[in-house]
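dumping this here so i dont lose it
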C-alpha cells in the first residue's frame, strides 16, 4: 500500500493503489472497497464562529472586567486568609449547618483558600473562553505507521525465529511455561498479604495501664498498677516526688525484675512505646485545670510521654515554665493547662493518667487512659 498525500479540506480523497483491502487510520482517511466508500470529502475543521468579544469592543471590555473581578476575588481571599491566620484563636469553634461545631480556624482558612484558588481558576477559564484567540491550529504529524517493508520483515522474523524455538512443536514446554508465568505472581501476593501481620483490633487504643498485655485480641481487665521508675523498676512514693521533680514512669509488671531479670512484657518495646508516662509535681495553685487537679494527687500529675503529633517521646521538661517539649518538631505542651498544645504541629493535648496513692503511700493508677495515646489514626474515637 502506498502513502497518501494530505489533501485540502473539501477535496476528494482517492485511493492510490488498486488493492482496496486495508483500512488506514493514521492519516484520518480510508482506502478500500470492503463496504467502505472509495471516495469521500475531507470535512476539514469546523467553521470558526466569532464570539461576542471578537465582534464588539464593548463586549470585550465587559469580559475583561469579569476576568479582573475573578482575579480580584482571589486577591481578597488570599489577603483575608493572612488576616484570619493571625486573628483567629486556634481553640475557637463555630457552628456550621450540616457539620456541627467545628474549628473556626479550619473553616475560615479553608473558605479563604478556596476563594483564592477558585478566583484564579475561574478567571483563567473565562479569559480563555472570551478573549484569547480561539482559532484551531493544526500541526500535521508524520504517519506513525512503519513502512510495509519493515512490517513484512518483522512478521518474517517472528515467524521464522519463533519457529526455531520449537514452541509450536513442543506443547509440553508451551503449557508448562504458561503455568509457570501464571503462578509466579502468587508468591509475591502471598508475601505481601502474609507480611501484614494480624489486624490491630483495639490494641492501638489500649496500653499496659488497662491491666496488662495489650496486643491484638488482648483486652485486659483494669486493675490499679503502681507507677514504677524507669529503668530502675521501683515503685514511687508520693512523698518522694518533690515540687519541680520529674520521673520517667512505666506501669508495674511491664519491666523485667532488675535483680532476677525475670518477668516483664512479652512485646516489651511495643508496650513501653504506648505506656511511657511522665510524672511531675507542681504547686497545686499553679494548676489551672480542675480536671487535671482532680486526676492528680496533691499536685503530682502523670501524662503520656508519647507526642500526639507523630509519636516521638516528649523529651524535655522546663521546670520554670512547666512546659513539655517534643524534640522532633517542637510541639510544646503546657502542664499547668492540662498539657494543652501551645506551640507546634501537634493537634491534641497529651492524655492524662488518673493517679492516686495506695495504702502504703505508693502512687498507683486510678483508671487507664481515657483516650488513645500518641498520634491520631483512622479508627481513633470509634
Ligand atoms: S512528633 Fe512531636 S512534634 Fe512531631
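and the seq i came up w/
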Amino acid at each position: 500500500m502506498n502513502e497518501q498525500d494530505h489533501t485540502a479540506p473539501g477535496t476528494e480523497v482517492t485511493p492510490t493503489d488498486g488493492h482496496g483491502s486495508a483500512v488506514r487510520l493514521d492519516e484520518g482517511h480510508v482506502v478500500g472497497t470492503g463496504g467502505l466508500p472509495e471516495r469521500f470529502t475531507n470535512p476539514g475543521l469546523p467553521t470558526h464562529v466569532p464570539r461576542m468579544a471578537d465582534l464588539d469592543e464593548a463586549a470585550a471590555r465587559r469580559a475583561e472586567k469579569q476576568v479582573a473581578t475573578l482575579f480580584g476575588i482571589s486577591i481578597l481571599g488570599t489577603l483575608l486568609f493572612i488576616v484570619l491566620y493571625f486573628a483567629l484563636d486556634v481553640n475557637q469553634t463555630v457552628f456550621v449547618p450540616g457539620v456541627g461545631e467545628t474549628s473556626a480556624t479550619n473553616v475560615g482558612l479553608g473558605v479563604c483558600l478556596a476563594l483564592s484558588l477558585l478566583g484564579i481558576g475561574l478567571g483563567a477559564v473565562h479569559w480563555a473562553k472570551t478573549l484569547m484567540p480561539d482559532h484551531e491550529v493544526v500541526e500535521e504529524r508524520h504517519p506513525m505507521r512503519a513502512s510495509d517493508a519493515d512490517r513484512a520483515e518483522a512478521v518474517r522474523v517472528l515467524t521464522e525465529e519463533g519457529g526455531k524455538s520449537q514452541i509450536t512443536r513442543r506443547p509440553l514446554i508451551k503449557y508448562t511455561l504458561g503455568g509457570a508465568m501464571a503462578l509466579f505472581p502468587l508468591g509475591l501476593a502471598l508475601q505481601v498479604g502474609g507480611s501484614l501481620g494480624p489486624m490491630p483490633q483495639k490494641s492501638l487504643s489500649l496500653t499496659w495501664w488497662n491491666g496488662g498485655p495489650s496486643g491484638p485480641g488482648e483486652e485486659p481487665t483494669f486493675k490499679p498498677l503502681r507507677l514504677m521508675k524507669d529503668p530502675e523498676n521501683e515503685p514511687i512514693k508520693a512523698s518522694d516526688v518533690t515540687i519541680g521533680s520529674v520521673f520517667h514512669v512505666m506501669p508495674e509488671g511491664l519491666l523485667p525484675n532488675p535483680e532476677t531479670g525475670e518477668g516483664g512484657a512479652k512485646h516489651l518495646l511495643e508496650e513501653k512505646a504506648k505506656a511511657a508516662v511522665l510524672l511531675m509535681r507542681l504547686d497545686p495553685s499553679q494548676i489551672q485545670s480542675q480536671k487535671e487537679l482532680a486526676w492528680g494527687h496533691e499536685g503530682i500529675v502523670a501524662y503520656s510521654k508519647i507526642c500526639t503529633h507523630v509519636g516521638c517521646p516528649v523529651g524535655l521538661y522546663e521546670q520554670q515554665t512547666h512546659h513539655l517539649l517534643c524534640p522532633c518538631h517542637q510541639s510544646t505542651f503546657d502542664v499547668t493547662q492540662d498539657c494543652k498544645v501551645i506551640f507546634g504541629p501537634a493537634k491534641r493535648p497529651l492524655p492524662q493518667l488518673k493517679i492516686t496513692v495506695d495504702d502504703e503511700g505508693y502512687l498507683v493508677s486510678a483508671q487507664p487512659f481515657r483516650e488513645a495515646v500518641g498520634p491520631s489514626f483512622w479508627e481513633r474515637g470509634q
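The pocket of FE2/S2 (inorganic) cluster is lined by residues 307, 309-312, 326, 328-329, 331, 344-346 (CB under 6 Å).
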